[in-house]
Every structure is written in C-alpha cells, then in structure tokens.
Amino acid sequence: MLVGAGGLLAFRLSEREQLAEPDPVEPLLPPGATAVLSALRSGSVVVDAAEAVVWASTTAYGWGLVRDGRLTDEEIVRTVRTVRSSGEVATLDVEPRKRRRGGPRLLLSVRVAPLTSDLVVVLAEDRSELARVDDVRRDFVANVSHELKTPVGALSLLAEAVEGAAEDPAAVLRFASRMQHEAARLSSMVNELIELSRLQNDDVGAHSTLVPIDDVIADGCDFVRTAVAAKQIDLRATGEHGLVVEGVREQLVTALRNLLDNAVNYSPERTRVVVAAHAVEDRVEISVADQGIGITEADQTRVFERFYRVDPARSRATGGTGLGLSIVKHVCANHGGDVVVWSAEGSGSTFTLRLPAATAPPATPMDDPSTLIPPLRKVVP
Ligand code: ADP
Q1: Which atom of ligand 1 lies closest to the CA of 311?
Q2: What's the gap in Å between 71 CA and the centre of ligand 1?
Q3: Which of 80-84, 98-102, 118-122 has the lowest average pLDDT?
Q4: Rounded to whole angstroms, how far apart are CA atoms 235 and 230?
Q5: Distance, CA 374 to ligand 1 centroid (Å)?
Q6: pTM for this predicted structure
Q7: Nearest atom, ligand 1, residue 308 CA
Q8: Which end of the chain has the smaller Cβ count within 10 Å, N or C?
Q9: Distance (Å, whole) CA 69 – CA 63
Q10: Minimal-distance CA residue to ligand 1 atom 3
C-alpha cells in the first residue's frame, strides 16, 4: 500500500509540475487540444471569453484570419459570440481577402464550436478550388447554351426566309447556302464539345503508344490542305525528324490541326506558316508560327479559355467555335506537357506544344529552314 501511495504521490507531483509549467502558447487549452488542432488540415483558431486568440494554426495566420491576437473577420467574431451564448455549433462561408485588392480568391467554409465553457474553436476549410470549378462549370453551361442558340436561331430564321422566298430561286439558293454554313458551325461545335468532354475524362496513359512526331505533322498538315491552298499560304515543315512522344496520336493530330487551322484563319493570304519540331532538353517542342494578325498581350492569357474569342465576328466568319485552343490545352495536359504562345500584334503568332520526349532513336538535325517535309511541297502554290 505504501508503494502504491508513493507511486500515486509521485504521479500527482509530476502532473502538478507539468501544470505548473504550461506551454506559454496554450495557457488555457485542454491537454492534447493543440496536437489535435495542429493535425487537422483546416486552419484553426481558439478564442477565449475576452475574444482574444489563445491559439491559432499557421494556416489560419497564412489566411489572414488572425492579426494582433484578434480574429480579423467581423462575421466570424459575431458567430463566435452567438456560439458562446447558445452553445451550439454554427457554420458560415467567408472570403477574408474580398476587401483586399489583388491576390487569388480565397473562400473559406468556417465551423465555430464551443470547446470549453470559456473557449470557442474556429475551424476553416479552403473551398476556393471547389468554388472556382463550380464557377467555371456554371459559366460553361451558360456559354454552351448561348453558343448553341445562335446557330439554331439562325437556322430557324433562314428556314422561314426560304419559305417566304419560294418564288425566288436565287434567294432560296442564297438562304440554303447560309443554312449550310450555320449547320456546319453547329455540327463542328457539337463535335468539339464532345471532344472536349472526352479529353477531360481521358486517361492517356491507359492507351498511349509511341507516336512519331513526323506522322503527327504530316497528318495535321493534311487536314488544312484545302484551306492552305485557298488562301495561297506557304506552309512549311522544318526542324528535326525522328522525334517521338508517348501518347495518343489522334489527340496530338487534333491539337496540331487546331493550331494550323488558326494560323491559316488568322493570317492574310499569301503569308507563310511554319511548323517546326525540335528536341529541347527532355522535351519535344512542336511550334506553329504564322505572319497573321497577332494577339495582344492581354488576350494571350485568355485565348485558351473555352469560348474566348478576340473578335467573335471574325471567328464566326471562319467557322471558329472558340473551343480550339481549349482542346489544345487539354491535349497537352493529358500528355504531361503544356502549350505556350508568343505573339506580336500585326506581326504574327507562334504557338508551341511542349511534350515530354519518349526514348526513341536519335533525332536527325535538319535545322536548315529550306528543308521541307516532301508532301507539303505539293500544297505550296
Ligand atoms: P476559334 O474557334 O475562335 O479560332 P480558338 O480557341 O482556336 O477558337 O482560338 C481562340 C481565339 O484566339 C480566336 O478566336 C482568335 O481570336 C485567337 N487566335 C487563336 N489563334 C490565333 C492566331 N494564330 N493568330 C491570331 N489570333 C489567334
């Protein structure tokens, strides 16, 4: 019994010692609370009855929830008071950076709960990414509806016009040709939307093969042959042969084709478009350079957004949907690469696909720009 009593005394003493020297940062917190709060992914803050912050995680400081030992957000302070008097958990959404200019949007989902009779804990989760995805989805649905309504509306008006002009064969032909144009636009938009949604859910790794870049360039150029000939564009392919990437050939051809389509559509007649492939460090870069209208610096950051068009009327006239570059961006991302743009207004643009190189036979340097991939010569008038 003596030994037992001694042990108990020793335990109590050591406990008292521990209590006598509390951690200066957490004077009032129940034992273990900071360990739990620190382990949480949420930003956490504990406030006492005087609304002073007695503990806050680094995340909470980083989000600007605490300054000079107080909570910064009025709404959270009010909720803390309510929770203290009601004893019930409350939730709210706050945007602590809203009033500050600049910086990315920060949306926090906050839970406020009583911890002890004096202390209240505030737990905040970052919901910014979810909110952003939600905004993009909402914008996308609104845009799709709008973009689809335009050609559908035009088709219905044209059909009415054809009916009204039944006696005038020339007018009927004119309206019919415009109907064809609108129908083609509608069809390419639907196809591109399907393509985009497929790309977003695609796991390239599951069906990737070794894709020779020479073939991608040959196929891509083949697709734009007619448009190139119609505008008497001097289309050239140059750079290195024998480069290989790992991926899905059709996707890579689609990406290059979209860049070539744009290069032709946004360039005056009788200008030059150059496709070049190069090995740069452990990447393969395929660039498409044109001498077209160019893109302002402000627009360069936006052209990859879905449906973004610098000049909607011009894009519509060339059958553009505003989805082409968005598809290019997704293809690159699916292949572990990216797409970059250089452009000067009035002088031209260069879009470059940068993809991880696959291990392949050594490339043959062919840097002389006069070296053309033979089939392209046929289309150069
Ligand atoms: P679109 O179907 O309208 O061509 P994209 O997504 O392919 O859609 O391109 C978005 C916008 O970027 C175009 O509407 C155009 O304003 C601009 N753009 C794309 N490529 C070029 C280029 N090579 N030269 C000038 N502007 C371009």
Answers
A1: 16
A2: 47
A3: 98-102
A4: 12
A5: 28
A6: 0.64
A7: 10
A8: N
A9: 14
A10: 322
Which residue ranges does the chain devote to CATH 1.10.287.130? 129-201
Question: How far away, in angstroms, is 346 Cα from ligand 1 center?
Answer: 14
Question: Is CATH 3.60.15.10 correct for 129-201?
Answer: no
Write the residue with the smallest CA distance to atom 16 of ligand 1. Answer: 310
For CATH 3.30.450.20, list the domain ranges present in the chain: 33-126
State in Å: Cα 303 to ligand 1 middle.
Answer: 6
Domain with CATH 3.30.565.10 in the chain: 204-381
- DSSP assignment string, 153-172: HHHHHHHHHHHHTTT-HHHH
- Using a pLDDT cut of 70, give the percent of the chain over it: 85
Q: What is the pLDDT of residues 255-271, one digit of tens each?
A: 999 999 999 999 999 99
Residue 10 pLDDT: 47
From the centroid of its chain, how far is CA 376?
34
Main-chain dihedrals φ then ψ at residue 246, nearest 5 degrees: -100, 125
- CATH number corresponding to 33-126: 3.30.450.20
- The phi and psi torsions of 273 (rounded to 5 degrees) equal -125, 125
Q: What is the pLDDT of residues 212-248, one digit of tens each?
A: 999 999 999 999 999 999 999 999 999 999 999 999 9
CATH of domain 204-381: 3.30.565.10
Q: What is the mean pLDDT of residues 113-130?
A: 92
**Phi-psi category of residue 322: left, alpha or beta, with phi > 0 → left and psi -120 to 50 → alpha:** left
- List pocket residues of ligand 1, CB cut-off 6 Å: 258, 262-263, 266, 290, 292-295, 303, 308-311, 315, 320-326, 349
Residue among 196, 258, 262, 306 whose CB has most ligand 1 atoms within 8 A, to mutate: 262
Among residues 325, 316, 357, 361, the alpha carbon closest in space to that of 343 is found at 325
